[in-house]
Amino acid sequence: MPRELIKGNEAVVKAAILAGCQAYFGYPITPASEIAEAAAKYFPLVGRTFIQAESEIASIQMVYGAAGGGVRVMTASSGPGISLKQEGISYCAGAELPCVIADIMRGGPGLGNIAPEQSDYHQVVKGGGHGNYRCIVLAPNSAQEMCDLTIKAFDLADQYRTPVYVVTDGYIGQMMEQVNFPTAVQHPKRHDWGVHGDDATRKNLINSIYLDPDELEEHNRKLQKKYAEIERKEVLVDEYRTRDAELLVIGYGIISRILRTTVDLAREQGIKVGLLRPVTLWPFPAKRIQKLCERVQAIQVVELSNGQMVEDVRLAVEGRKPVKFYGRMGGSVPSAQELLGVIRKL
Amino acid sequence: MYEKYLEKSASFYPEYPRKSGNQSVTHYCPGCGHGIAHKYIAEALDDLKLTERTVLISPVGCSVFAYYYFDVGNLQAAHGRAPAVATGIKRINPHSIVISYQGDGDLAAIGGDEIIHAANRGERLTVFFVNNAIYGMTGGQMAPTTLVGQQTTTSPRGRNIHNEGYPIRMCELISALEAPVYVERVSLHSPGARAKARKAIRKALENQVQGKGFSFVEILAQCPTGWKVSAPDSLKWIEEKMLPYYPVQVFRDKSAEAEGWAPPDVAYSDADVLQLIELPLEDEAAPAARPKVPEQYRNPRIKIAGFGGQGVLLLGVAMAQLGMMEGYNVSWLPSYGPEMRGGTAHCHVNISDTPIGSPLVSASTVCVAFNKPSLEKFEKEMARGGLLIYNTSMIDIQPTRKDVEWLPIPASEIASQMGNIRFANMVVLGAFIQKTGLINMETAIKGLPAFIKAKKLIAENVKALENGAAFVRGELKI
Ligand SMILES: Cc1ncc(C[n+]2csc(CCOP(=O)(O)OP(=O)(O)O)c2C)c(N)n1
Ligand code: SF4
User: Fold this and answer.
1) From the list A30, A65, A185, which residue is nearest B337 (CB)?
2) For A233-301, what is the HEC assignment?
3) Atom 7 of ligand 1 has which residue's CA nearest to it?
4) Which residues have CB under 6 Å of ligand 1?
5) What is the Å distance from ligand 2's center to B27 Cα?
6) Which whole number is the average pLDDT over B119-146?
């Protein structure tokens, strides 16, 4: 198995190629630029398409075009660019086009800064663009998962004909770790519903317009049914020392890594705490949190934001147990010690 | 209200099943220019036998439903984005004929960026730009092409240059770019003008058949409804109002000289792909038995800091790479972005027997300081009993922490004596290896090419490692 010490961002690109991604359309932005740079290096080498678009608006529309052709395709960006992509993502959701969007989050709002934050949660998890849609959101917390979840993102996108995000923060994107890459190169069949530019697919139409209110409602109901199925089947969650936990901490991305150390530190002091990490931010592991609520006395959510995911935790908990929030913003990342202090106050 | 405009060319659906209501007439107003433009395009597709492999991108505007009519592959695009959508699908279907059909609001206002850059990249596309000087679809608002003085619902007193500027001439703009192969403006106002329009449409498609690059045809077209004139008067309107401002002419024609091009169609085996993306298949040999590591050096949490350019980040990568080769869990996290510019750089490295939780190093058990500010800053946050390695060549003070182990080393001088101060980081790596025993020297020598990319520098870097180790053993005097 090929093993490499590699940045999370670069692992995304190699994984995408192994997954059979045919085209990358992007626009540079820190801290996601390594994805564009590695794609520029490797995609053309193996006969795939790389274009540096004029903007994020255009790059996601190129994705729409290529996805409409029935092939695997991706783009990547960070906060300000993801904001611009929302138009195209809504169109992809409406036209049911599979695609993968990596978001390596940075500080906001506005230009903010390039340090790690998790403040895109709302715009990626709650839909972001206009209309009644959801995107599947995968949240890796290691370079290995940047590889594995990118491949999974392509599979899910195809299976459900929907855009899938791979969302993480600047630290997970910039960090180098060992990655064991799969050796299989996938050769996904071009979708029959795609427009291949040939007679066989000539009757196909990629479209999100339904003029008639009844038809548009029916289309929306179909989308909602698909989302309900995703919520039933695709929840992924990772837990650490939750078996006998009396307190539960919840975090994703870099925060989940820090919390893991904090849990060990707390356990050394006899505090029975466990960590739950949503691997899918949507669908959100609400059921699992409800289950753990039966046992734990209190829940502490930690985010690099003003408290965005905590809203989903509270919706899941429905007031059964106290839910506390601790957030850092602007790119300040708490240490394991700092979070130990937070847990001790619970 | 509706008129049967589209004569049944084979590239049109005979009826329009995607349309609601009367499926034998189009949704366009009587006398609308779009219908004529559609007809000429369909005829050209028939004659050039392109129907089967054509992909049409419908815009947002009155022609949003172009896919009702054309019996070709269809994608409907967001407002203004048709050239980007066309780029995406053309690049993955290079054999197909991709048409971006757009109105003036779509192409010249909201989609100004997309059209300019598709043109500038020389995308092998055909763009038909229907200029009717107004937003038809939304009920007659001002377009970027609306004429000076022209009244619309959003320029009720007429377009005023002081408030709205001048009408935009897209052919002139596009032909200022290097890449486009063919740029022509035509009109639909008279039989003679229409004959030219027909020809231009054909040429723009033929260019794509031959792989000749970006072709752009602007069609001055009537919108009787938006202009609030009768269908016959709309033709006069073009002639009298539009032609003086929008000259009908060829702006660029390199069709004859331009060379056809298509991306090479090469098949890559899976083995080729793995090779090309630098994922070599062969498994690394199992790591050799590690030397016994003294308790205090196990599972180090390492902070390395210095000026940018001192090889701080590379030293961290090297430690992580070698740690990985020895079978440890490793992580490397850099300071990135502006933090790195000009000033200091630092990185966090973990080498551990167990899975790594936080990759951030706050209480370091190993601290490497290449310069004075780094020593002052990071010594403070070290864990008790840690190892402090500092570059005495650049640091003229002593550490203050008495509860950590000091390893002073004149790394920059050792490197300079070898002829290149840049080897200082490898000198430190050699010292670290010797001191902690975490990594075998053979592994380090074997692993060097993974992070020292210049082959000719390998031998000297090995020497630097050995010098660092020799210094710690007390065998190298300086
Ligand atoms: C993002 C966005 N903004 C605005 C609109 C509303 N809109 C639809 S068509 C149109 C103008 C189209 O005018 P033009 O491109 O000139 O085409 P015509 O209808 O004249 O053929 C506008 C503003 C939209 N659909 N999407
Ligand atoms: S409003 Fe104008 S452009 Fe639209 S269909 Fe009617 S005549 Fe044609």
Assistant:
1) A30
2) HCCCEEEECCCCCCEEEECCCHHHHHHHHHHHHHHHCCCCEEEEEECEEECCCHHHHHHHHCCCCEEEE
3) B138
4) B 60-63, 79, 103-106, 130, 132, 134-138, 143
5) 9
6) 98
* Among A10, A33, A90, A207, the residue to mutate for chain B (most B Cβ within 10 A): A207
Average pLDDT value for chain B: 94
In sequence order, the 6+-apart residues with CB closer than 8 A to the CB of B343 are B307, B308
Q: What is the pLDDT of residues B308-344, one digit of tens each?
A: 888 999 999 999 999 999 999 999 999 875 545 557 7
The reply to whether omega before A31 is within 30° of 0 (cis) is yes
For ligand 2, atom 2: residue with the closest CA:
B223
Count of CB atoms within 10 A of residue B408's CB? 14
A218 touches chain B (CB under 8 A): no
Residue A151 has pLDDT above 60, yes or no: yes
- What are the beta bridge partners of residue A302? A326
> What CATH number does the domain located at A238-344 have?
3.40.50.920
Query: In a mutational test of the pocket of ligand 1, which residue from B36, B58, B60, B132 has the highest number of ligand atoms less than 8 Å from its CB?
Result: B60
Coil/strand/helix, residue B68: helix
Q: Do B91 and A5 touch (CB under 8 A)?
A: no
Give the model's pLDDT for residue B1: 39
**Same CATH topology for A3-233 and A238-344?**
yes
**pLDDT of residue B6 exceeding 60:** no
Q: Which residue of A has its CA nearest to B347?
A: A175
Token pair recorded at residue B66:
């172009």
Class of domain B295-472: alpha beta
Please, is B155 exposed, middle or buried when counting C-beta atoms within 10 Å of its C-beta (0-12, 13-18, 19+)?
buried
Helices (H), B48-167: 66-69, 82-92, 104, 112-121, 161-164
CB contact, 8 Å: B324 with chain A?
yes
Q: What is the pLDDT of residue A1?
A: 75
Q: What is the pTM of this model?
A: 0.96
**Helix (H) or strand (E) segment spanning residue A49:** strand A49-52
Nearest-atom index, ligand 1, CA of B60: 9
pLDDT digits (tens, 9 = 90+) for B216-257: 999 999 999 999 999 999 999 999 999 999 999 999 999 999
pLDDT at B341: 53
Asked if the model's pLDDT at residue B419 lies above 70, the reply is yes
Give Cα separations from B453 to A3, A178, A233, B425 (angstroms). 18, 19, 46, 15
Calpha distance A102→A106 (Å, rounded): 13
**Cα(A188)–Cα(B259) distance, integer angstroms:** 33
* Residues B282, B392 contacting (CB under 8 angstroms): no
CATH class of B34-253: alpha beta
* Confidence grade of residue B5 (pLDDT, cut at 50, 70, 90): low
Chain A residues within 8 A of B78 when measuring between CB atoms: 61, 64, 87-88, 91
* A residues 288-327 lying closer than 8 A (beta carbon) to B: none
Please, which pLDDT band fits residue B23 given cuts at 50, 70 and 90?
very high
CA atoms within 13 A on the CB side of A82: 33
B-chain residues within 8 Å CB-CB of A174?
333-334, 336
The amino acid occupying position B307 is F
* pLDDT computed for residue A224 by the predictor: 98
| SS3 label, residue B155 | strand
**Measured distance CA(A120)–CA(A86) in Å, rounded:** 12
CATH entry 2.40.110.10 includes domain A3-233: no
Residue A73: closest CA among A55, A54, A56, A97 = A97
Chain B interface, mutation test: which of A24, A73, A185, most B Cβ atoms within 10 Å?
A185
